[in-house]
Write a structure and sequence with these properties.
There is one protein chain. The chain is mainly beta. Among the domains are: 123 residues, Immunoglobulin-like, CATH 2.60.40; 175 residues, Neuraminidase (6 Propeller), CATH 2.120.10. The strands form 12 sheets. Strands 3, 4, 5, 6, 7 and 9 form a 6-stranded antiparallel sheet that branches. Strands 25, 26, 27, 28 and 29 form a 5-stranded antiparallel sheet that branches. It is globular. The protein starts with 12 loop residues before the first strand and ends in a 6-residue tail after the last strand.
Amino acid sequence: MVTRGLGLVVAMALLLLGAAGCSPKEAKYSLTIVTTGCGGANPFQGVQFVRIRVLGDGITTPLEVVAPASSKSAVLPDIPAGSNRVIEVRAYDNDPTVGGRVVSIGHTLPFTVPDLIDGAIPEAELQKSVILRQVGTWTQPVSLTERERCQAMASARAAHTATLLPSGKVLIAGGFHIPSPNDRFRVSLGLTEIFDPSTGVFTPAKEFSFIDTNKTETKLFKAFHTASLLPTAQVLIWGGEKYSVISGVNVVAPQSEVLVYDVGANRFNATQRGTGPAAIPRTQHQAVVDSGGRVLVVGGLRFNSSGSGPRLIPVNEFEWFDANDPTPRVLETAMVKRVDSAAAAVNKGEFIAVAGGTDGTALRDEVVFFKWEDRGFKQVTQQAPPRLAAPGRRNAAAVSFRDGADMLVLGGYSDPTAIRPVQTTEIVQSGVATVARGADIGSRGELCAVTLKDGNTVLAIGGRTADMAGMMVRSDATTMIVRNDGRGGTTGQNGPSLAVARYLHTCTLLHDGSVLVTGGLNETPANPSGEVLNDAWIYTPVPAD
């Protein structure tokens, strides 16, 4: 293995050449390590040592080498044949063998080293890259070719989706934007793009569309849709809303299309319902995947066809999708009118819990459970369903918690219509069908939350807040770290704040355990329509090992 020295690229990047011995040929992998940041970030500041590790299937103990940052040479560990190979680079403020602290960290995307090389391997597959990011803070992405310019999405967007793909890349899709600073009308998007954490680059992808029976491409525009990763590695896009302006009002139109995105072909296909129930136009709903990869679609808003009352009303019906029989279906045995509820998989994905929300008039506090049985989802019969603390909450975040056993419900609003933020969290304990009080996270609703790789830590990010009277509504920039305390409760501590406040943003756990935040709406009392953002930020936790 040959190494081209630390600091080779103008002391800003680390380039190493390694080789994985195979027969009858030898594969030479190159690794580029980006040690520069943007926007004032410097992931290599104070770094004295670098530890390079190789991880992957069948590697019980990481293969590693430690080298001084001032060294002119370092050796990349041999990479054995196998799948899910990852090269991890950690930078320390002192020798890690005597207690040095991690300053920054980075990983390659997973790759496979073949057992036998009987032909040429494309050069792109041999070129690996690691971008170092400071731990315990938010940093913006940089690219391999533009190492001092912060990367951002091509489109400003809010109420969009961001889905982690099996490759480690992220599909960012749809949402809305506001065309100009002086405009107050929302415009829904059909644009999608893919973020590659290993290169820091956002690349345009196929727009929302499908080919109809006349072989004509129909383009679609969606915000507040859901995106769910299927066991087939495809992405299920469900419902959403688009906008028109009528008499000076932004009018919402719920959408009924269900699309499946084929990652390899970069193509959307519309699902067919055959002779089944008509599609239900719905928006602002939830979609949760159970342990079998089946998707339950919960609540949301639909058109009111009664001729009286509000134009949009909560959806009664649940729908579901099974990739093994890819036809959207209605769960006809359950009618639970809900919008703005919280939903997540519990008991290792065996059940899906739905908590709170409103029925269009009042807050609801019940927690109901659904389970896949035989050939469809069914609501679990309960004599006394567990309940959230009175009066319930809406627009809370929800995540699977405690290694997937329970659901953590975070924040929300305590009024069916007004912005009256809740500062508490609650734990839906699936094993005993009860709800326990959790840590406070600051008063906010419409926040984004993600469970970190350890399964027991949740990062609550941003949201929307207001004063006690429900006035002076604004976006929030703060974050909270909520941890399982091992005694049935949780503890909370302040995390690093975002540079720009936001809600209607996304937060996605990346393959390496860091968290990607994209876009959102920065609403202030001076600008109640809000500024739609196109920026991206990554939070990298301090490694526990």
